Structures are given as structure tokens and as C-alpha cells.
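Input sequence (69 aa), recorded before submission:
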Amino acid sequence: MPADYPYPTPFEMLRYLLRSFDLKLPEKDKKRLDDMAAKRIYVQESLASLLDSILLMSLPNILGMKPLI
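Predicted structure, C-alpha cell format:
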């Protein structure tokens, strides 16, 4: 988090939350999340699509369940 922007973006908070639970994302989702966290511009649609990708596709695989879609 840069010094000129004292508050974390929603993408940085999501990245921190995933790391705190030691959840591993697929490489493409991890790169996408890192790129969005590096930007200072917050687009709500981007967060929603990333959450859909993580929650509907990646999280069930991590937990050993079948994908929800």
C-alpha cells in the first residue's frame, strides 16, 4: 500500500483475506487480483466479477467440492 493512499482498496483487502486463510488461487486469478490491487482506481464491476470467479469456481475446488456453476 503506497504512502500517498493510506487506506487499502477492496482488492487489497480481498488479497489479504485470502492469504490469511491460506487459500491458493489459480495463477490467472492471482495475477488478476494482484493487478487490480496495484491500481488505485476501484471499479465495482471488477470486484464483483473477481468475487464470482473466486467464490463460484476456485473456492469449491480448494475445499474439495464440485464447482457451483
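Checked by second reader. The chain has one domain: 10-63.
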